[in-house]
Amino acid sequence: MKAKTILAWLLIVSLCVGLCGCADIRAGQTGDLVLWSEPSGIKYLQNDGGEAAKTAGDKSVLQVQMAKNETEAVQLMMYANKAVSCYNVEVSDLICGDAVIPAESVEIWDQLYQESVNTSRPGNPNYANGYVPDPLLPMETAVAYGETAIEAGHNQAVLLDITATAGTAAGVYTGTVTVTADENVYKIPLEVTVHDIDLTGVEELRTAFSWFDRDHLASSELNSSDEIMKQYVDLMLKYNMSCKVPFEGNGGIERYIELIREYYFKDGFTAYALYYEPTGSGYDGTSTNVNLPLMKEYIRALAHASVEDRINYLDKAYSYFYTDVDEPASEQQFLDAKKTIDLYFQMLFDCDTELRGEYAGTQDYDYYINTVSPVLTNIPDVIPGAYDVEDVKAYGLDNLTVCPVLHTFATPGYAEAIREGRENVDVWMYTCWSPTYPYPNAHTDDLPLSTRVLGWMCYELDTPTYLMWATSCYIWQIWGEPMEDAWTNMHTGEPSAGDGKLTYPGAKYGIDGPCPSLRMVAYRDMSEDYQLLNVVRDLYQKQGLDAMNVLEPLFRQIYSPGLIPNRDVYAFEQVRTQLFEMILNLCAGNEVYRVATDIGVATATIAFKTAPDVRILVDGQVQTPDEQGVYTYHFDLTQQKEFTYQIQNGDSIRTVTHTLIDGQLGQVQSFEDPAEDCGNWISCFGKNSGQYSNEMAQEGTGSMKIEMNPNAEDALPFFALTKDSALIGGSWQGIQTVKMYLYNPASETVNLSVTYYTNQDVNMNSFELLPGQWTLVELTMPVGELEDIDAIEEIDFNFERGTAVTVYVDSLVTVKEAP
Amino acid sequence: MKKILCLIFAVLCLFTLSACNGEQPEAPAATEPEAEQRSNVVETDENGQTYYLLADFENYFEASQLGLYADFGKIELVSRGDEPEMVTNGEGSGHITISGNESSWMKRRPNLRISTTTGYFNYTTDFSDMDYLSVDIYNCQDYEVEIRFYMNSQIDPNNTMEDRYATHPNNPYNIVYSVRLQPQQWNNLKIPAEEFKLVAYDDNGARYMKYGAEALEAVGGFHITFDRAELHEKPQEFYMDNVRAYIQK
User: Fold this and answer.
1) pTM of the shown model
2) Which of A47, A174, A549, A602 has a C-alpha 20 to 30 A away from that of A685?
3) At B158, which CATH number?
4) Distance from B214 to chain A by nearest Cα, in Å?
């Protein structure tokens, strides 16, 4: 009896111990382990000294929103106040009424870290040294291989990648993420919103990822077979990264056609580079290293397969002769490019001539002539490069599919100029080691958000294909040595961190095939965001309208006209929310179609259309559109600060309030009087001068012309808005914003840096003044940042040292707090 | 009853301990501990001869320093515990399967590079004092197989046969040393230093050959090429282990 009692007590004690080990601790609390949620666009150093964890308190629910047939990620962040020897993460089914997103639809990836030091990432000098996350390892593998320890004082991130299929019902799904960390168990709520928007069939961003040849990855995989390449291609397609089929000649043409037939319909397979070999001795009497006769045989076989299957396999094909023509810059390189392109198109022409003859008189002739032939004779020949528009024209590269590196598009007018005279040829976009920070790219030491916005830029710039030069270079340099460990080595052999290495070799962890990275997740999101934008485009096109009117304000929230991303991931998530709401309201007939939105300093114009049978009411009065069905409203911002209207769709009425101006507009200075001393308003110092001008006007007939002479020795060329100016009147009290228009008459963009001066210069904002345009310069006063706002003596408008800059100022105004 | 309670107690104790990895399979360490990695050590064999150990197939990290060029195939690491007869040195060897064939990219021959400049066996690149290269290869076929050795130089890699195009069967610069492997047995190959040759050019641009010590002053790697897969009825398989560069006495 006594023994039984002891055993019973032992049992009770052991039960208590077991229960203590499963304590349900809510995320966000301080303790041994701090847990919180972050969007997928951000990454924190592993050793950030606990800075990221300070934001944990208000982010205790893992939240993500997506369309149907989309995958979206959210990050579970952990910060160890006390060392963790082992952790594991599991997720439950996600429930929404009777609907379920099964736990299997949530992939759990452990994030591994790579050391970033100045020498390994010369591309981004603004990123702190430390351990940066990028490789993704399946959670169960991470546990099995002992990769799940967290040092005290370190962050650890886990990525949850959630997929909603086309059949997933719209709604808010909830579930639980369970974190086991040594003896503790934590439970964090997961909330997934699936919107009633289906991306199935929506035009995708075409992607053209290359891996060069397989020597680059074989060492780290201990494998260079076709089977390992298939694993790579399949993983890339999962992340919407299209590439060539897993073929490098084995099995010849027959095997190639078999693979094209297999891959053509796979999700994510949007474009593929045609197989070629640089073993040519010439074509049509002209020497070339590209084996065009062999290539012609492959294309003939593809054409035959297309005719036989009545599927035009060539419409996703392109050519990229990277071994022979790449990034032309010198005259000789352009001439070589021209020669290769001309021979290539001659080969296509010859191929087409042969096939026309073969199909003549057959029942396949019409299909070949109408469907295959026009595509075959125009299979793009893509050459990436930092193209100068004049070079492209001078060397007559009319057939070239120009693929400029991203930052060249930042030059105003570049996209239009590079397209001029090339109506039948697409312009693509690409990135490589360049551009570097602050431009967006897919470098390891930048935020995933930077990669994601590339899709938004591709939409705005109308570059429907994005090219990345390499994917799996696990070598130190081109044709160099294998990296010591591709998982931990950030890739120091290239000028930018992680360039050309987006996957990681699974062989290290006993995985048959590669593992993905945070940057691949970002590329996937880039592609899916592009589809979301196309949903808006398609809705607008049904109304005969250009969606750019409504999308451009979204673009400006996430990157500048000069293509510099706003790296605020929360602002980006807000923009995605706006996009989802816009689509849902448009689909429901509860949203207007924006025709024009122009909000200036003193006036604003808003014009929109509606879906059929939808009425607009203002102040309860039914509005009448013009003959084109457009409702147009003009506003005097000195009189009206917001515009409220109602959208009536059947029984549904939605009230929309459009804020035109936030605050009380002051008197607008328009520089209309030639006799007036402009210096009362804007001060020019030293070698700079300002005076009335009737050469340019944003409003009325006059403006203030400021000429700044180069002043390399002394201060930067600048002008100033002083506290004692007529506009400010001796005090900044109550002023929220200062607005003005600046006109840049030069042929190139002028960079403007605005600072305020107390007893030192403090940055306020930067602007790019595009040539031949008025730019609205809006400055938010540092209210709350200074103990006394009147410590500001002046706001300085600074230009680049050593440049002679002329600008015109017009419509100068302050906006004060509403009374 | 006591036994039942003890059993319940034991099960509960196990349950509380299994929070993290109780059901996970034991997995090998992905990376060899740093302390066990090779360094600049010249080793001595049982006969008192000194050598550099160039490849030993002991772990993933070491094996990933090899270069697998062209459509080579794959290397699976095997352990002495699993296949004791297939290891000649240390605890592991490499099981090689050749898959590259005639129609593969630029018709290159399957090519394995044993690099001398990577992070693991980084003794030296100066092999001018080498006596011979020693390699253990097991030929799994039931017939003799020819393999070929050559080296590449760091001095002027464009003029040496290490160039990736050199493995093209028609390339005239493909200067190699051929060895025939006896079937279904370990072949301990000893390739004399003078068999490694280098194409060089004098100041007048005239082409000449360097042999042995002169050619081996700055070695980037020793290469082995195999027959393309289509030359045989099924993919060729080999085991390789214990690649050493023996130093002259």
Assistant:
1) 0.85
2) A602
3) 2.60.120.430
4) 23
Option in A7, A220, A510 nearest B27 (CB)? A510
Eight-class DSSP state of A200: T
Provide the pLDDT for residue B72.
Answer: 86
Tokens 């515009």 locate to A643
State the DSSP code for A667. Answer: -
Angle at B13 between CA B9 and CA B15, to 5 degrees: 115
- H or E stretch including A805? strand A805-816
Question: Which residue segments constitute the domains of chain A, with CATH numbers given?
Answer: 20-197 (2.60.40.10), 201-251+265-272+393-559 (no CATH), 275-378 (no CATH), 589-661 (2.60.40), 678-816 (2.60.120.430)
B62 CA to chain A: closest CA distance, Å?
9
Q: Which residue has the tokens 């996600």?
A: A94
Q: What is the CA radius of gyration of chain A?
A: 30
How distant is the Cα of B228 from the closest Cα of chain A, in angstroms? Answer: 11
**Which residues of A are less than 8 Å from B226 in CB distance?**
none
Of B67, B73, B105, the CB nearest to A213: B105
pLDDT at B158 over 60: no
Which residues in chain A have their CB less than 8 angstroms from residue B31's CB?
485, 508
Q: What are the beta bridge partners of residue A157?
A: A77
Q: Contact B1/A146, CB-based, under 8 Å?
A: no
| Shortest distance, CA B204 to any CA of chain A (angstroms) | 28
| A143 touching B (Cβ < 8 Å) | yes
Q: How many domains does chain B have?
A: 1
The sign of the dihedral angle between the CA atoms of B228, B121, A505, A275 is negative
The rounded distance, in Å, linking the Cα atoms of A794 and A798 is 12
Range of the domain at B175: 51-247
Task: Check B64 against A507: CB less than 8 A apart.
Answer: yes
CB spacing of A88 vs B20 below 8 angstroms: yes
How many helical (H) and strand (E) elements, i.e. helices and strands, does chain B have? 3, 14
Contact B111, B149 (CB under 8 A): no
> A88-97, A387-396, A708-717: which has the minimum mean pLDDT?
A708-717
Contacts of A19 (CB under 8 A, 6+ apart): none
- Token digits for A718? 């600048």
Is B35 part of the contact surface with chain A (CB cutoff 8 Å)? no
B13, B61, B77 member nearest A14 (Cβ): B13
Tell whether B57 is covered by a domain.
yes
Is B106 part of a structural domain of the chain?
Answer: yes
Nearest CA in chain B to A226: B71
Residue A309 has pLDDT above 60, yes or no: yes
Sign of the four-CA dihedral A111, A106, A531, A628: negative
Residue of A nearest to B65 (CA): A482
- Which whole-number Å values give the CA distances from B54 to A51, B58, B164, in the listed order? 46, 12, 21
Q: Which of A4, A15, A145, A224 is most worth mutating to test chain B (most B CB atoms within 10 A of its CB)?
A: A224
> Which strand ranges, in their side-by-side order, compose the sheet holding A621-622?
A621-622, A614-618, A642-649, A652-659
Amino acid A10: pLDDT: 45
- Which residues of chain B neighbour A22 with C-beta distances below 8 Å? 19
E strands, A117-220, in order: 130-138, 155-164, 171-181, 184-198, 206-209
| Residues of B with Cβ-Cβ distance to A232 under 8 angstroms | none
Name the residue among B1, B2, B19 with its Cβ closest to that of A180. B19
Residue B70 covered by a domain: yes
Q: What are phi and psi of A174, to 5 degrees?
A: -125, 150
Specify the amino acid at residue B2: K
Tokens of A366: 């019409």
The answer to the question of residue B40 being in a domain is: no
How large is the ipTM? 0.83
- Shortest Cα distance, chain A CAs vs residue B249, angstroms: 31
The pLDDT tens digits of the residues spanning A29-62 come to: 557 899 999 999 999 999 999 999 988 878 889 9
Distance between CA A779 and CA A784 in Å, rounded? 15
